[in-house]
């Protein structure tokens, strides 16, 4: 199925994304436009490091679920279906087996790829927060920092500082430096 029209609704987008030739692609719907995510190895390594810390914490605490590259939408928004690199949801609702999760995650984490701009990433953070996400991390692998956003606060953390789960995931901590482990060019 070829993308022909300029703007899509979530329903049209999900039909397009579910087509056999598109199932293995990381497609998002951003303001009605289909956008493909093309992560790099360094991006994947940073995301994997973050996922590992979350997974270990959640395995011990049973606080919820952490996943990578899952599509989310809100029922009232017909022009957006987003894929955070890593996301956390509390509770034990049955997993969605097809299509987008019909709500935003409580924590959304985006790792900057070379094709991303911080301006675009910050717009994503605003979107997540405006639609129910409580904590957003924007990770910048080249300059090795993390921007942390909540509805009422934002901060930038660097290596040597500690990230946490805030009120969303109490007790969770991760050194910023752990995100960038083994990602430096030799």
Report on the structure:
It is a single chain. The chain is of the alpha+beta class. It has one domain (40-179): tt1808, chain A. It has four helices and ten strands; from the N terminus they run H-E-E-H-E-E-E-H-E-E-E-E-E-H. It has helices at residues 10-18, 41-61, 118-130, 176-179; strands at residues 27-30, 33-36, 64-68, 86-90, 107-111, 135-140, 145-150, 153-158, 162-165, 169-175. The strands form three sheets. A six-stranded mixed β-sheet has the order 3-4-5-6-7-8, with helices on both faces. The chain has a two-stranded antiparallel sheet with strand order 1-2. A two-stranded antiparallel ribbon has the order 9-10. A hairpin with a 2-residue loop joins strand 7 (145-150) and strand 8 (153-158). The longest helix is centred in the first third of the chain and has 21 residues, at 41-61. It is globular.
Write the layout of secondary structure elements.
Layout: H1 10-18, E1 27-30, E2 33-36, H2 41-61, E3 64-68, E4 86-90, E5 107-111, H3 118-130, E6 135-140, E7 145-150, E8 153-158, E9 162-165, E10 169-175, H4 176-179
Parallel strand pairs: 5-6
Antiparallel strand pairs: 1-2, 3-4, 4-5, 6-7, 7-8, 9-10
